[in-house]
Amino acid sequence: MKFIRIHRGHKVASTLMVEPITREFVGSIERFAQNNNIPLILFEKGQRKDDFAKEQRKQFRQPEGVVFIGKAQEKCRVYRTEKRRNPKTKRTYPWIVKSNALVNHYYFYCVDEAFGPFFLKFCSYFPYNAKLCFNGHEYLKRQLEQKGIAYEALENGILSCQDPHQLQLLCDQLSEGKIDALLRK
Hints:
alpha+beta; five-stranded mixed sheet; two-stranded antiparallel ribbon
């Protein structure tokens, strides 16, 4: 893999080379939780994460921030190193292959003043994929409240609004740039 050989400067590509990065990545997440008094919750198999997060948000008293960090083992695509043998020389060499594995994922359940509840999920295994999940309806509810526009909410939507035109404008103004700013925040 180019990352290991070119960026990290190793002659041989092996996932063993990224193990120290993985340990530091996981350690930094767990230190962040500890240093900021953020609960680190181990999700149980089959536990509904969203239901748990909803209960935790009820106890969260800040206008925005990290409510808790959840840790769960989930199956995902990973890169692994296997030994292969050169048929002519009989020497073994490492070869990187894609496979599936159960690995730890870290969920940062947060609240933002503009977006409402959201979570950011990180895979703890190289290449450390991340995923940002937010609800556009929650974003709209926050925007309407900030503008003082009355509305009737559904659990996952808006039933009616005092100013439908403004509601549509708010929908149209949700942009890639605003989502990117949330991610970088």
